[in-house]
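In the current project phase, the collection of sequences with tokenised folds has grown. A representative record is quoted in full directly below:
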Amino acid sequence: MNSIFDYVLFHFQRLYHLPSPLEISYGLDGRSRVQVTRTTSTFFERQQAKPVQTVWKEWHGSNLTLFFDESPDQPWFTQTEQGHVVVHYDLVASAFYLLSGWQEFYGPERDSFGRYPYKASQQARHRFITKPLVNYYLDILREAVALAYGQEILPRSWNGKPFATCLTHDVDFCQSAWKVAGKPALKKGNLGVFLKLAQQKLRGQDAWFNLPQVERELKQLHAKGTFFFLPEAAPYEGHPNADYDVSAPEIQNEIKRLAAAGHEIGLHGSHGTGTNARKLQAERAKLPANVKGNRFHYLRFDPVKTPALLAELNLLYDSTLGFPEHYGFRNSYCHPFRLFNFRERQMLPVWEVPLNLMDVTLHHPYYLQLPSAEVMPAVTPMLEEIIRFGGVFTLLWHNENFSDYGLEEGKSIFQEITRFLQNRQTCFLTAGEVIGLTE
């Protein structure tokens, strides 16, 4: 259980300006200023995916799920005559369970791409996908520390701003608008659209070769983006990878131009590389030597094999962990966190920049299919949670959805989301910059 406490405490210490030295014990030792009641459950000694029992308890107007407590009747914490503060619920165990991804590692459920499916998760079962429960647990612990030490505990900021935003762009397609968007238009009788796209292609200016357009949108926001390039063009088991050759001069020129402008270049690991270290390393070698982050194509993250693989390749961070089926908090946390190695029972050096919203989630026929007018009302509660806890909002918007031939009203939806963030005084950062401020 010490590794569980150490893991949770590590992340707690990166959220707030805490007293030093900080006295917190996991278990009632009778001495520490803050003592967290430890569960008597043997759940973490076994290999089952889901706790048997859950209870709900209110905290500042929010109903929170707890996984290792039997009754919600006690106060969250009380102070003894000696000034010690006793937390009566095992916030550590519940935080670890969600943050580490325990349910995914031990859960057998997988979709056709080897991904842990949203419908199998506790987030879906108890409907808290847009509530970062781990942040709530640590907020309760913060108030307990504030009471024990008699001082206000302030959150850390992002270069003086209350929360951060990572604008990320997976570059999957930049040579095939004429085909992917043009042929369906032709079948619908829209000859003009097809001819326009075909003529652009013949002139060597495919409508999706539009990274300068993406960059202009970022410039309007005074933001730098993180661009994940896909180094593999060959299909994998019938599934498409890139429609371009990353070594082609025109692509290399774009990579160099974006990097020179201050944007971050990341690796977009292709199909199958989440379980194949040698292949992922070969793809990484096709990109600039200073690439330090990855996001897997189709968000193909294997909960059992991928974390250790990322550590083996000495990648600084990954930004794959979001459910493709739904926006929100896959690990119930709105800050970056370190991945966990369940076999060794220890924290890995690799950071995860969790993915909160992907454009494809909004319109894919297997996902939400939200009309454009419903997007902001739907995602605003999630954004408000990130703002509440001073977290990081990570948005994935593919370059083709800035064009007129991708997601319907894709550019205007992006602008509406980012305008909301800008008005709330966000700090726009690349994923690498976020990790630099978190470590």
About this structure: The chain has a mean pLDDT of 95. Residues 133-149 form the longest helix (17 residues).
